[in-house]
Amino acid sequence: MGSVRDWLLDPADPSVQFRTRTELLDHALTASELSDYRRLILESAPVRNLFGKMHPEGYWLHKRKGTSEYIGAGVEYASTATTHYCLAYLSELGLTRENPLIEKAADRYLNLQAEDGDWLMHLSCLLGYNIKTFIKLGYREDKLLKKSVDLLLKSCRQDGGYLCDMHEKRAGRKKPKSCIRGSVKALEAFAELGPDYWDHPSCVKLVTYFLDRNGIYKRSDRMQPVNKDVRTLSFPFLWNSGLLQILLSLGMMGHGMDERLQSAWDLLESKKSDDGKYSLDWTPTQCPWKVGKRGTQNKWVTFYSYLAKKYRG
User: Fold this and answer.
1) SS3 category, 186
2) CA-CA-CA-CA torsion for 73, 75, 77, 79, nearest 10 degrees?
3) Does the bond joining 236 to the residue before it have cis omega, within 30 degrees of 0?
4) pTM of the entire structure?
5) 142: Cβ–Cβ under 8 A, 6 or more apart, which residues?
6) Model confidence over 222-279: pLDDT tens digits?
7) Pairwise CA distance, residues 133 & 65, whole Å
8) Which of 61, 209, 41, 222 is nearest to 124 (CA)?
9) What single DSSP character describes residue 312?
10) What radius of gyration do the chain's Cα atoms show?
11) Using CA atoms, how far apart are residues 5 and 115, in angstroms rounded to an integer?
12) Tell me: the pLDDT tens digits for 94-118?
């Protein structure tokens, strides 16, 4: 892995370098090194670009295709360029609420929350996604985020997965199955919440929901992927249910060696190039964070592939 490690530690990408050192290699950084990384990351092109697009009041707008309408000041969930996504990108890049611009945008968005901790139509994908983001940004003990966590704990369905109002309450339909994409976001949230939550009945049921389908397959046919997302190495992590999100989350929670996941791990291994790197299968074209071209070797996908394998052990 030497050449891969050197590639990930290239100072040209301070966010990848920082996260490789601290998460993949478990390096303890000095106060001076941490300060240097904060400065370098803040000065990096992705961060400058994202902050450059932020509205002075603390949100990100995106123009709906084919219209004159801009969305993003609220909790809209129709673009990869609106506020909850941009906050997630910045958390991936290594920023936290210690940055005043992050705190301004994050506090504003948290206060758009509904009384029960929801943001929009009880979308489990949005709920889980936001919980993960705000924990990474340093809001673990925030009282508003705790309301969202409580809602996550209460929302697990009988089959162990998650859904949302618009599918749960469709008139004239039989009771629908859980949504794999929403369930993946919930799984990521639980993984980020940490060991205090992993024995909770809702988390146990959700983990079983995935292990019973060998991670990425249909329960009725464990040779058939549940959708095309689960075979894909995608980044940034969005609404989809990519292979890395599932394997990393289950690995973080101590299930990486479960024999039912072997086929999914084999799939990940099959995507590794001869020099040990991984390529980006998919990234959204309209995303304001340009992480690389589809079909080319990618540092973020490679970092997360090795991080998943680290947690597997």
Assistant:
1) helix
2) 20
3) yes
4) 0.96
5) 110, 134
6) 999 999 999 999 999 999 999 999 999 999 999 999 999 999 999 999 999 999 999 9
7) 26
8) 209
9) H
10) 19
11) 46
12) 999 999 999 999 999 999 999 999 9
